[in-house]
Each structure stands twice: as structure tokens, then as C-alpha cells.
Design goal:
The chain is α/β, with parallel strands linked by helices. The chain has eleven helices and eight strands. The strands form two sheets. Strands 3-2-1-8 form a four-stranded parallel sheet.
Length: 268
Amino acid sequence: MAGWILKSVILKNTPMRTKIVAGNWKMNLNRDESLQLILDISTAIQQHDLKGNRVMVFPPFVTIGYVMDSGNRDHRIEVGAQNMHQEESGAYTGEVAAKMLSNMGVNSVILGHSERREYFNETDSLLKQKVDTARSNGLEVVFCFGEKLDERNAGNHFDVVERQLGEALFHLPGDAFETIVLAYEPVWAIGTGMTATPDQAQEMHAFIRKTLANRYSESLSNKVSILYGGSVKPDNATEIFGKPDVDGGLIGGASLKANDFVAIVKAL
């Protein structure tokens, strides 16, 4: 796939897709800090017209309930979970089940984040199970995937992404993608000091959309929101979000600073 040409994969007659800015708080912020952050974000966007765009935050498990129930939260801000176990229940000390999340009002869960893959050895086979469990419990999946530096340097980045999508998602029927958001993470550009250019982001997003079109249909591929998760910041958000196949961002560090996160939201 080294001969991949960007212009050959941009699909025509693209309908409006839902734009999303999702903040992944990771293992940060205690209860009081979380409540202050959601207050600050809510205060800053309360007069802002989101124009149908979605804003999501993903706190740690222990603070999801506090953030969700906060009387200061702008209720346009959705609250999701960062992970879940693949089994419905059982002797899995320290884990959280999908039905526990859905029962408390959580509607979305991040699966396959690069840190879960790297530090907790989550495989595409395991993620396939998690995706199925999430769907059976009515949870929307924000599915993360992307290549490492050595894979990109070897020219294998398209193959890696296609494999990750295929093994974890392509067993699903087409209508399942109504509740799946894709989040491309160039792992080599996260916390390394290296950055992917907006054109590199567009190139991969266009490839992802074409891969969906080949597996399912062009109509389906044009409806799926694909987020970019490669160190989006206020100073690069507008250019990245301006690319035709980039539908928003999965935001890490910048989501912990209300001013930065709101600036990114407004960049949509």
C-alpha cells in the first residue's frame, strides 16, 4: 500500500457527519478537581452554539458519577467511560462491567486506546469481545486504533490500521456502525514530541473511510465519524478539523485544561 495516493480516496458527495470533541481525562483528577473542571468547561460553553456537534468527557471510573450528577454540568456535555471488561459479570476483581455503566446512565465507552493496548496487552481479539459486550448493553463505542513509530517507518501503517479495524470490528453488520465512533491515534505522535501533520491525518482518515467503503458501502463510510487522536491543541485544532475526513478529536492532555478544551470545541 506504499503507493497510496490521498486524492484517490476522498469520497464525493459527502453528507454532513456528526462532529465530536471528546476529552479523555485518563488517570487524572480527584473528585473535587473533576467537579471544578466540568464547572469551568460548562461555564465557558454555556452561551456557545454547538451547532449539532457533540462534546464528550471521559473521567476515571471513580468520578464518572460525580461529573454526571453535577448540577453545574452543561447537559450538552456527555459523560462516558474509559474502558470496561469483556464479561458481563463475574470474579474479576477491580474490573467494571458494561451493564454497571449503562445502569448509571453512561452511554459511551472508549475501547482499544493505545495505552490499553500497550500497558495492558489488549489485543484485537479481546477488543472484539469488548465491542460485542458493549453493544449488547446499549453502549456506543469510541474505538481507538493506530500505528507505532516502527510500523510507520517500515511503511506498514495502512496495513496495521486495516488489520486492527478488520479483526475487531468487521464481523459486525453495517448497521452496527450507527453506534461506533472511530478514533485514529498515531501512537508515534502521542507524548513523544513528534507531531503528525494535518495532511498526514487526512491521508489516514481518507484511507480509513475508503476501507469502510470497500468492506461495507460508500454510503456507510460517509456516515461514520472518525476522530483524530494525535495531540490536538488549540493552536492546531482549526487546521486539523478543517480536513474533509477529520470529524473532530479525541483529546488527551488539553482536555484537562478548561480553556484549552473549550478552544478546541469552538474550533469545530
